[in-house]
Amino acid sequence: MDEPDQSAQVEVVGAGPAGLSAALAARTLGAEVIVYEKRSDVGARFHGDFQGLENWTRREDVLAELEQQGIDTSFEHTPVYEIICFDPGGAAHRVNSTLPIFYLIRRGSERGTLDYALKRQALAAGVAIRFGERHPHLGPSGVVAEGPHRADVIAVGYVFETDMASGCYAAISDRLAPAGYSYLLVEQGRGTVAACLFKNFHDERPYLERTVEFFKEKVGLRWRSARPFGGSGNYAPVRDAVLGGRLYAGESAGFQDALFGFGLRYALCSGHLAGVACATGRQSEYNVRCQARIGAWIAAGIWNRWLYARLGNRGRHLIMRRIVQGADPRSLLHGIYRPAGWKTALSRIVPMQPLLTPARLRPDCDCTWCRCHREARVGS
Fold first, then answer.
1. Disulfide check for 41: which of 109, 151, 230, 256 has CB 3.0–4.6 Å away?
2. pLDDT recorded at residue 379
């Protein structure tokens, strides 16, 4: 049982889902919480684009999990039961599930987005959010949730208005998104189309153009008031989510789905665990709890990513034809993402370094993301 430390004061860097989840958890336990956000508002690096809150890594519904963590799930969300997937040859496969595969949510600063809802809940709980403040230096026991620090995957696309019927579409083809996938999400007159690339980042524009043309041909994509957007993400093996006494949550630690980039559930969960650890004075237990709750799934994702990248179009085409067609996608994904000892072992031989390593931290460093070595080189 976690007992609150009535004198706890918690500082959080970053007002994304991981940071605000940490703030809410700590505040619920009675801690005084200050969140520092370098941008002018929450969700400022997003543009109202649709994203998916995955519902397959665990049997438990993700919304029930969030409610248990003290997060109000009255934010706008749409359960998705059907996806039309296109294999590398362009053939369509309609897959359905009796339970939600994922929940469609929007990201950004505007009303109706996940970010806006988390901000309103945090403020209502008494969390202080200081926008426009970077707070690059943080003492021990603070929470770092600044988001990605390198680009292992990029998404480039458009958000738009449309008269198309609601629907979710995905396309697997190296011609559209090398080692990744393209998607089209439409819900109640809004849409997002994008290519997620895991390599060849400098050619993102041609891949996006091919993605747009593909969905125009296959599903009749039509739009108005289209606005471009882009973003990046990072993932990594997480050996220890604590560095210099500070607790790292979300993508700052590497807690991200390496296979397809569905990392919101990991971000919210790791943030919650960080907030509880700080509010109860049990920071030393944070990494152990993260590894127990998330670690094996992160390892499985890294192995899945390595395998997926090497299958190529021919291998993915075979899998789509033989396995995906006719399967329950939620059950299928649950199996793919299910942790296993052999997956964890194989993930350790994948050539990828953790984001957080003691070698990157000077003994007297209090940077949220160490700048000491860089500044020393510049000043030398």
1. 109
2. 38
